[in-house]
Specification:
38% helix, Nonspecific Lipid-transfer Protein, Chain A, elongated, 2 domains
Length: 230
């Protein structure tokens, strides 16, 4: 028997409801199997064992039910998790779309309330960018803009800094560089920043503050697809 989704009302305590739900599911399955025996030959019916019914949990590994049942579960296989094959046609637009989630992550991190510019250099133009990089502008923990950006070199960066200084508002600049297209795996949570730094020599991060910000915005997450039938 397979369980692919489990959702409860907010007022229901998972720990209180979980075992009654599982017992009812097993009772339903037992009844169905006993009924099936009536349509089978004696030999085939004898192969159906209703005294030992297992449940395959195909729900997110971080689901409360999985955590509660973990001590009773048969260890899962160590095969890689489900992986996405995703093309991002516009990095800035994608960042704008997921801004609420990114801001939530920031709020729960040591970088909560930060103000500055996160500049990511991809070395060359890649699919999803009309420039060689991406800039995310953050003000007091809120993402106010995401735009295409290109690293124009030391002289241009120095001139930009002097212009800001003259205006009396030099922003904090967080920077990092990624081998072409490897940023996708960080953006989608398939790999962590540390994974990329160990796998690709082109992955460079300016300082510890930049690492903190990147880890807050783009943590490694578990990949899972819930299957729902109507």
């Amino acid at each position: 028997m397979k369980l692919e989704a489990l959702a409860l009302e907010e007022t229901v305590i998972v720990e209180d409801a979980l075992y009654p739900i599982l017992r009812q599911l097993i009772a339903n399955k037992t009844r169905d199997l006993e009924s099936l025996k009536n349509y089978l030959s004696t030999e085939d019916a004898a192969t159906i064992n209703t005294n030992s019914i297992s449940i395959l949990l195909q729900i997110h590994p971080e689901h409360p039910a999985v955590r509660l049942l973990n001590p009773l579960m048969v260890p899962a296989s160590q095969d890689p998790e489900f992986r996405y094959y995703v093309r991002i046609v516009d990095y800035p637009q994608f960042i704008r779309t997921v801004t609420p989630e990114l801001e939530r992550r920031l709020e729960c991190s040591p970088m909560a309330g930060t103000t500055g510019r996160l500049r990511l250099d991809f070395y060359r133009k890649v699919e999803g960018n009309v420039a060689k990089g991406l800039e995310i502008i953050i003000e007091k923990g809120k993402i106010v803009e995401a735009q295409h950006w290109t690293n124009l070199g030391y002289q241009a960066n120095a001139e930009e800094y002097l212009a800001w200084k003259e205006q009396g508002k030099v922003p904090v600049i967080y920077t990092a560089a990624f081998a072409p297209l490897t940023f996708n795996t960080l953006l989608l949570g398939e790999r962590s920043l540390n994974d990329l730094m160990w796998s690709y020599g082109e992955t460079l991060v300016k300082n510890e503050e930049s690492k903190l910000l990147l880890n807050a915005l783009f943590p490694k997450v578990s990949q899972h697809i819930d299957t729902v039938y109507y």
